[in-house]
Amino acid sequence: MKRTIKNKNKQIVKENMGRKKLKLKRIESLKERSSKFSKRKKGLFKKAEEVALLCDSDIMLIVVSPTEKPTVFNTRSRSFHTILERFCMLSLQEREERCDLSYFYIIIT
């Protein structure tokens, strides 16, 4: 991405690097992995809250940490049990489809 900055008699072209794509690989150190997980979890919950607000939807996330500690996050005022009951009312096939990422990619394409 290039941007041009005009400064009196000079024209400067700056090239921005933008964000680099990270190479994803498992973090070997449990301490580092737990720290990174904690930071990423906060970001994930923040994004879930934004989507719920913008789209007027209920979102529930169950996240299990590297130390096997589960955290449940749900948006708005609905309880965990209310959202889970709505999911359980779906047929078995619908539940499996909604838990399978390949179904997600079929909808997008």
TrEMBL record:
Record gene name: AGL33
Organism the protein comes from: Arabidopsis thaliana (Mouse-ear cress)
Domain MADS-box: 17-77
Organism lineage string: Eukaryota, Viridiplantae, Streptophyta, Embryophyta, Tracheophyta
GO cellular component: nucleus
Protein name: AGAMOUS-like 33
Entry's localization field: Nucleus
Record-linked PANTHER family: SERUM RESPONSE FACTOR HOMOLOG (PTHR48019)
Claim: Coiled coil is one of the keywords in the record: no
Major localisation: nucleus
Xref: Gene3D superfamilies: Transcription factor, MADS-box (3.40.1810.10)
